[in-house]
Amino acid sequence: MPRPDYVAAIDQGTTSSRCIVFDQAGHIVSVAQREHRQIFPRPGWVEHDAAEIWQAVQGVLADALGGLDGQIAALGITNQRETTVLWDRATGQPVCPAIVWQDTRTAPLTHALAEHEQLFKEKAGLPLTTYFSGPKIRWLLDEHPGLRERAERGEVLFGTMDSWLLWNLTGRHITDVTNASRTMLMNIHTLAWDEELLAALDVPRAMLPEIRPSAEIYGRTRGGFPVASALGDQQAALFGQTCFAPGETKSTYGSGSFLLMNTGHEPVVSKHGLLTTVGYQIGDTPATYALEGAIAVTGSLVQWLRDNLGLISSAAEIETLAKTVDDNGGCYFVPAFSGLFAPHWRSDARGVIAGLTGFVTKGHIARAVLEATAWQTREVVDAMNADSGLDLTTLRADGGMTANNLLMQTLADVLAVPVIRPMVSETTALGAAYAAGLATGYWPDIDSLRANWHKAAEWRPAIDETAREQEYRNWKKAVARTLDWVEQ
């Protein structure tokens, strides 16, 4: 029987859905993409139409696979995490708009649950914030009359986007361990829904999907090929960057940035402001865990410089502007536009530009904007090293900002380790494809995936330790000036 030619991945993101097809070497064969609406019914509310997203996914599948001359071995799924969908078991239709991970309507509820904060930290590995799915489910059940009773009878089902797509593709109500680890309802030690967590959030067990590994054959599509992986987007990027050994770390640089460090088969509960999450689980092998540091504002700061201040007319111009000067001229930009994420978790913080003198030009500010991404990364890496007992030796970087060579060099200087950009930048979809290909035997083992990984570029540290640490002290002084700004 001839060997299938390709593996496909659905990358269901916050603003669009894509289907990317890869060959045996991990090269991209075809891509299709469709955007979906961002719905903002009130300040702080962000919603999606799950039915619209399913239509988009069907469209990109047809577009990406339609012109292929060859067979698909497997289909993998990676998805925006924490976004919460409720649907009718009988009709398969959403019963309300999906609440997106960015939505903050559950802030009063999370404050009311403060007595359970230590429980969530110890069992779920997560801080009590609006970010995660559990409070969103509770809000929907509380606010929609009759919904809780239907959920308790198992008539209304919950899922994150992976579950919604798996339901529509295979008819099964399942999720994987990485997505389940972002709900605040799964015990990260047992990899099972936890009665104590369910009780604290008052979520009925009958509405929850079955938790499965990240890579196994879940079912088949109507087209007949196996659906064989599901991974939250940042975990998929960790997998696509082949960070399979403890200590190996990737950072995805987009509007915000996410660093994940593989910590092996034991969850490390952070004492330094990071999230403990499941990295991946291949079949019935033990789960691999990760520490995660989320940075709210990185690429979006460059957009802010373009759109709000007009100092540049395109994001790419920031590198040219920053190169008009040799250093930051003594100024530091901390972009705490809506508080600070990891490792501080300070919602009272607001952005500052510190160290201004008459000498500072727009070139210095542009350089300080790029350095803000590097210093925020350094803070998260220091926390990871302290939590894990492992020292970062190399950073594998992906995402749109990695096209900025000055930023990549600055990261290497600030972290004092080499920074590497891979040949294939679509690491999220690649990770989902790799996991699906492993589950179906398209790739024999993780060593074959490592062999596919090739670096496109590498940057090495080029400043001395004294200069690095002096700059870091100045950065920390700037961060201190952002705190306690919002009094209520």
From TrEMBL:
<dbReference type="InterPro" id="IPR005999">
    <property type="entry name" value="Glycerol_kin"/>
</dbReference>
<dbReference type="InterPro" id="IPR018485">
    <property type="entry name" value="FGGY_C"/>
</dbReference>
<feature type="binding site">
    <location>
        <position position="234"/>
    </location>
    <ligand>
        <name>glycerol</name>
    </ligand>
</feature>
<keyword id="KW-0067">ATP-binding</keyword>
<feature type="binding site">
    <location>
        <position position="233"/>
    </location>
    <ligand>
        <name>sn-glycerol 3-phosphate</name>
    </ligand>
</feature>
<feature type="binding site">
    <location>
        <position position="303"/>
    </location>
    <ligand>
        <name>ATP</name>
    </ligand>
</feature>
<dbReference type="InterPro" id="IPR018483">
    <property type="entry name" value="Carb_kinase_FGGY_CS"/>
</dbReference>
<dbReference type="InterPro" id="IPR043129">
    <property type="entry name" value="ATPase_NBD"/>
</dbReference>
<feature type="binding site">
    <location>
        <position position="131"/>
    </location>
    <ligand>
        <name>sn-glycerol 3-phosphate</name>
    </ligand>
</feature>
<dbReference type="GO" id="GO:0019563">
    <property type="term" value="P:glycerol catabolic process"/>
</dbReference>
<feature type="binding site">
    <location>
        <position position="16"/>
    </location>
    <ligand>
        <name>ATP</name>
    </ligand>
</feature>
<dbReference type="InterPro" id="IPR018484">
    <property type="entry name" value="FGGY_N"/>
</dbReference>
<feature type="binding site">
    <location>
        <position position="15"/>
    </location>
    <ligand>
        <name>ATP</name>
    </ligand>
</feature>
<dbReference type="InterPro" id="IPR000577">
    <property type="entry name" value="Carb_kinase_FGGY"/>
</dbReference>
<dbReference type="GO" id="GO:0005829">
    <property type="term" value="C:cytosol"/>
</dbReference>
<feature type="binding site">
    <location>
        <position position="233"/>
    </location>
    <ligand>
        <name>glycerol</name>
    </ligand>
</feature>
<dbReference type="GO" id="GO:0005524">
    <property type="term" value="F:ATP binding"/>
</dbReference>
<feature type="binding site">
    <location>
        <position position="81"/>
    </location>
    <ligand>
        <name>glycerol</name>
    </ligand>
</feature>
<feature type="binding site">
    <location>
        <position position="400"/>
    </location>
    <ligand>
        <name>ATP</name>
    </ligand>
</feature>
<dbReference type="GO" id="GO:0004370">
    <property type="term" value="F:glycerol kinase activity"/>
</dbReference>
<feature type="binding site">
    <location>
        <position position="82"/>
    </location>
    <ligand>
        <name>glycerol</name>
    </ligand>
</feature>
<feature type="binding site">
    <location>
        <position position="81"/>
    </location>
    <ligand>
        <name>sn-glycerol 3-phosphate</name>
    </ligand>
</feature>
<feature type="binding site">
    <location>
        <position position="131"/>
    </location>
    <ligand>
        <name>glycerol</name>
    </ligand>
</feature>
<dbReference type="Pfam" id="PF00370">
    <property type="entry name" value="FGGY_N"/>
</dbReference>
<keyword id="KW-0319">Glycerol metabolism</keyword>
<keyword id="KW-0418">Kinase</keyword>
<protein>
    <recommendedName>
        <fullName>Glycerol kinase</fullName>
        <ecNumber>2.7.1.30</ecNumber>
    </recommendedName>
</protein>
<feature type="binding site">
    <location>
        <position position="299"/>
    </location>
    <ligand>
        <name>ADP</name>
    </ligand>
</feature>
<comment type="pathway">
    <text>Polyol metabolism; glycerol degradation via glycerol kinase pathway; sn-glycerol 3-phosphate from glycerol: step 1/1.</text>
</comment>
<keyword id="KW-0808">Transferase</keyword>
<feature type="binding site">
    <location>
        <position position="18"/>
    </location>
    <ligand>
        <name>ADP</name>
    </ligand>
</feature>
<feature type="binding site">
    <location>
        <position position="404"/>
    </location>
    <ligand>
        <name>ADP</name>
    </ligand>
</feature>
<comment type="function">
    <text>Key enzyme in the regulation of glycerol uptake and metabolism. Catalyzes the phosphorylation of glycerol to yield sn-glycerol 3-phosphate.</text>
</comment>
<dbReference type="GO" id="GO:0006072">
    <property type="term" value="P:glycerol-3-phosphate metabolic process"/>
</dbReference>
<dbReference type="Pfam" id="PF02782">
    <property type="entry name" value="FGGY_C"/>
</dbReference>
<feature type="domain" description="Carbohydrate kinase FGGY C-terminal">
    <location>
        <begin position="251"/>
        <end position="439"/>
    </location>
</feature>
<keyword id="KW-0547">Nucleotide-binding</keyword>
<feature type="domain" description="Carbohydrate kinase FGGY N-terminal">
    <location>
        <begin position="6"/>
        <end position="240"/>
    </location>
</feature>
<feature type="binding site">
    <location>
        <position position="14"/>
    </location>
    <ligand>
        <name>ADP</name>
    </ligand>
</feature>
<comment type="similarity">
    <text>Belongs to the FGGY kinase family.</text>
</comment>
<feature type="binding site">
    <location>
        <position position="14"/>
    </location>
    <ligand>
        <name>ATP</name>
    </ligand>
</feature>
<feature type="binding site">
    <location>
        <position position="82"/>
    </location>
    <ligand>
        <name>sn-glycerol 3-phosphate</name>
    </ligand>
</feature>
